[in-house]
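Protein modeling request. Please complete all fields; requests missing the sequence field cannot be processed.
Requester role: graduate student
Desired output: 3D structure, token encoding
Chains: 1
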Amino acid sequence: MDVPVPEVYVQVTQSEDGTEEYGVVDGQQRLRTILQFIGIESCEDQDAEEDSNNFVLEALPTASRFKDTSFSDVNGDARKRFFQYEICVRYLYTEVPKEVEDVFKRLNKFTMPLKPQELRNATFHGAFPKLAEKLADDEYWAVNRIITAAAIRRMSDIEMTSDLLIGLLHGPQGGSAKIIDEYYEQYEQFDDEFPEQTRITRVFSKTKELIQRLFPDIVDVPRWGKRSDFYTLFVALGSRLQAGGISEKMEKRLRDALMRFATKVNQMVEDVSVTNPTQARQYADAIVKGSNDKARRADRHEAIVKTIEPILSEKKRKVIKKVRRR
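Delivered output (326 residues):
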């Protein structure tokens, strides 16, 4: 299209023998896009399998002669001009991580509107963000449309798994960028493993597996496939699993109860005049007043817990009766 590519910022660290190492501070997406376009695998992960020469320029203007072509279709002088293009690079000769982070923040906070999670990804490097990123690397989130493909490109999937981890560790919290930042800062001191990481990772996996069993069709289920409602469902079931677990025999009754609950909530969201003091009304009011506010999340959490607890407590009563008979 003959338009300039914004300059790239690269950190340079040099050893005493003159050997230099380079790290991209700003421009990683631009460079990786170019590498993917010409069919070179990701430099960040040598084991990643990238589609070679399969990056089609479908978003170009209709008038462009390169629209809907891939790099393998480009030849002759056009191919030469592509290789001859020089990207402007600004080098930062420093070994101080804080200086690099400050440069990145300045570049992106005031000139490019990056998402909060993209800024976190460049600022925090401890055990907590690493775990959140690992848990986000799961096709479940995209396949079930809990996170859209566009949102995943802006790291919203990592933000979501961070939010879920915080909820499992500390109970329902507000979902604002400031609150998530505060927890990232709190855990940043732990490089390899933060307290309770092994346990909470196991709880996270068990909770996701439980939801998959309860709602294998969650994309078509009322309410629970929406990100804000999924958060509440996930944290509520996760807290219950931490308290004592849920047997397979109770899962069908649990699914039915949650389906009925979701249907009632939908009805009450549509008709705010219904003042019946039920858990569904409490949940519906919390949705209307604010889905990510800490107090509203706590109200929704309480409503779900009160709904499912009688079902799960029934198992305990049966066990007690058995013991008494013996």
